[in-house]
């Protein structure tokens, strides 16, 4: 067949032009919207996530799949009532390509809704709200951290194995606290224990005295607590100051002692928790990460830094699969979901719903480290209740 030279030239010109425009687009920076707490009880957590994310990007020479990364930032204050307005600053005003956030489950639920409505990519680097990779699951949403159910469940397994029968729980009355306690209760009661009573106070209050008095009066075999950040520091100190650490073992999801041990001091020593990270995991990957983090920030990494670092790794995996071309959305999100993340916590994959399938470690607080004491539950996958993809 003879080709009409005019048509061939036109076709060639057109394809040259489209590939030029794709190239031009691929030389502009990728806009990453960091929505994290910079103030309030979770401020330190937000800062560690940001440091971890930026560390990975810096280790790649400041670019992912050949494209510069440009950051836009909003302080979400861990305030759900401001969350929709805040996330829309990043989506509508700054026009970001990908959202990274946040710490607080209530704020993250609003982010997930906005991400779904606008089809913006969202990587959740902490908040465990079960629905994000449950009923609200979507191809454009993944999580680099955990579901609230996971550390609650694995701590329940351990507490039951230790032979405790009567537990009390204590937490803030909000999504993360309630779902973590639910996970704990599920495993603890399946293992033969019984949760006698659940105590709560509203987020982010730290007036624990009346609740500690009630624990002292009821004398359970074990207490399970979910608190994090500054609230966790105060709770662990108050528990010890009330003398309860001498009589009633305190267990928690690892957030109770992660990023907080320096401030908690003697009060936290010997506490057992479970989480998907332990500071002293003696692997080349974790050692290299901790060294790089310490050199860059003059501070010790914690689980939040790991989750930020891994959020960047998941984004990088997606971008690599499409050569940095964000218009290839389906291939990009598929690659993000399919990646095996070479995390400082150990390699992990994502479930179809986009949540890490990961080993949960038993840790003990020693000095300023949460030390590895064993695997509490291997390759724990969130049940992703309500997820229809
Ligand atoms: C949450 O709100 O989901 C949350 C906050 C802090 C943590 C863990 C979970 O350390």
Task: Describe the protein.
With 389 residues, the protein is of the alpha/beta class. The chain folds into 2 domains: 30-146 and 281-354, Response regulator (Rossmann fold, 3-Layer(aba) Sandwich), CATH 3.40.50.2300; 149-275, 3-Layer(aba) Sandwich (Rossmann fold). 43% of the residues lie in helices and 23% in strands. It has 13 helices and 15 strands. The protein has helices at residues 5-27, 43-59, 83-93, 105-118, 149-161, 175-190, 209-218, 229-241, 244-247, 261-264, 284-297, 303-321, 329-338; strands at residues 30-36, 63-64, 67-75, 98-100, 121-124, 141-143, 166-172, 194-201, 222-226, 250-253, 272-275, 340-343, 346-350, 356-366, 369-380. Strands 7, 8, 9, 10, 11, 12, 13, 14 and 15 form a 9-stranded mixed beta sheet that branches. Strands 2-3-1-4-5-6 form a 6-stranded mixed beta sheet, with helices on both faces. The protein is globular, with a radius of gyration of 23 Å. It binds P-hydroxybenzoic acid. P-hydroxybenzoic acid is lined by residues 42, 103-105, 126-129, 176, 228, 255.
């Amino acid at each position: 067949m003879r080709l009409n030279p005019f048509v061939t030239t036109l076709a060639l010109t057109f394809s040259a032009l489209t590939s030029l425009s794709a190239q031009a687009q691929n030389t502009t920076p990728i806009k990453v919207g960091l929505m994290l707490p910079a103030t309030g009880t979770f401020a330190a957590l937000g800062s560690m996530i940001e440091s971890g994310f930026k560390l990975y990007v810096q280790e790649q020479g400041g670019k992912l799949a050949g494209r510069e990364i440009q950051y836009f930032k909003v302080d979400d204050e861990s305030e759900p009532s401001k969350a929709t307005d805040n996330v829309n600053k990043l989506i509508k005003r700054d026009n970001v390509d990908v959202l990274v956030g946040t710490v607080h489950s209530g704020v993250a639920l609003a982010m997930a809704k906005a991400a779904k409505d606008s089809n913006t990519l969202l990587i959740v680097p902490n908040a465990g709200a079960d629905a994000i990779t449950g009923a609200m699951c979507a191809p454009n949403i993944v999580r680099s951290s955990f579901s609230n159910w996971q550390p609650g469940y694995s701590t329940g397994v351990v507490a039951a194995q230790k032979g405790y029968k009567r537990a009390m729980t204590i937490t803030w009355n909000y999504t993360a606290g309630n779902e973590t306690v639910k996970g704990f209760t599920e495993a603890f009661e399946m293992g033969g224990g019984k949760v006698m009573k659940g105590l709560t106070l509203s987020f982010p209050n730290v007036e624990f005295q009346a609740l500690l008095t009630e624990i002292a009066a009821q004398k359970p075999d074990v207490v399970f607590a979910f608190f994090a950040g500054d609230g966790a520091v105060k709770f662990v100190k108050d528990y010890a100051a009330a003398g309860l650490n001498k009589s009633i073992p305190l267990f928690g999801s690892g957030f109770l002692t992660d990023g907080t041990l320096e401030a908690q001091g003697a009060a936290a020593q010997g506490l057992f928790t479970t989480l998907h990270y332990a500071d002293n995991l003696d692997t080349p990957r974790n050692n290299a990460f901790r060294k790089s983090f310490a050199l860059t920030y003059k501070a010790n990494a914690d689980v939040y830094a790991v989750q930020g670092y891994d959020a960047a790794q998941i984004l990088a995996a997606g971008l690599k699969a499409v050569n940095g071309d964000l218009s290839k959305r389906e291939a990009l999100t598929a690659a993000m979901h399919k990646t095996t993340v070479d995390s400082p916590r150990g390699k992990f994959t994502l479930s179809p719903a986009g949540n890490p399938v990961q080993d949960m470690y038993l840790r003990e607080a020693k000095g300023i480290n949460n030390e590895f004491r064993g695997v509490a539950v291997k390759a724990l996958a969130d049940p992703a209740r309500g997820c229809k993809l």
